[in-house]
Amino acid sequence: MGTETVDTLVVGAGQAGLATSYWLNQAGIGHLLVDRRETLGGAWQDRWDSFRLVTPNFSLQLPGQPYQGPDPDAYLGRDAVIELFRGYAGGIDAPVRLGTEVMGLAVANGGFRVDTPDASFAARRVVLATGPYQVPRLPEAAAGFPATVKQLHSNDYRQPGQLPKGAVLVVGSGQSGTQIASELLAAGRRVHVAVSSCAGAPRSYRGRNLYWWLMQILIQGPKHGMQVPMVDDLPTPAARFGCHPHLFEDSPRRLAERGAVLHGKVLGTDGSTVRFGDDVAQKVAFAEADFDVRFRPMFDSYAAAVGLDLPQDPPATGRGRVPEGEVSLDLEAEGISAVVWATGFRLDFSWLGLPILDEWGYPFHQRGVTIQPGLYAIGLPWLHSEPSSVIPGVGADAAHLVEQMVAAG
Question: Do residues 398 and 22 touch, judged by C-beta distance below 8 A?
Answer without folding.
Answer: yes
